[in-house]
UniProtKB/TrEMBL annotation:
Biological role stated in the UniProt entry: Involved in the early part of the secretory pathway.
Keywords linked to the UniProt accession: Golgi apparatus, Membrane, Signal, Transmembrane, Transmembrane helix
UniProt protein name: Protein kish
Protein family (similarity comment): Belongs to the KISH family.
Gene Ontology cellular component terms for the protein in this record: Golgi membrane
Taxonomic source organism: Jaculus jaculus
Location of this chain's protein in the cell: Golgi apparatus membrane
Membrane-crossing residue ranges in chain numbering: 6-23, 53-70
Keyword Membrane found: yes
Entry membrane topology: Single-pass type I membrane protein
Matches recorded under InterPro entries: KISH_domain, Ksh1
């Protein structure tokens, strides 16, 4: 049902980016060996989370505020 609700889709994507960046910080070899193909999506999400971390952090705060206080 997250596919049909735009806010839920954004929440899932944001959680995926944060989770992949955290996993890559703990064990980089897990995501680095799969840079292409279907599993390459997780490597790309980790790179977005690492390089755009201030923007991702702001998006997490805004999303948390909107979930807690706007719904």
């Amino acid at each position: 049902s997250a596919i049909f609700n735009f806010q839920s889709l954004l929440t899932v994507i944001l959680l995926l980016i944060c989770t992949c960046a955290y996993i890559r910080s703990l064990a980089p070899s897990i995501l680095d060996r799969n840079k292409t193909g279907l599993l390459g999506i997780f490597w790309k999400c980790a790179r977005i989370g690492e390089r755009k971390s201030p923007y991702v952090a702001v998006c997490c705060v805004v999303m948390a505020f909107s979930i807690l206080f706007m719904q």
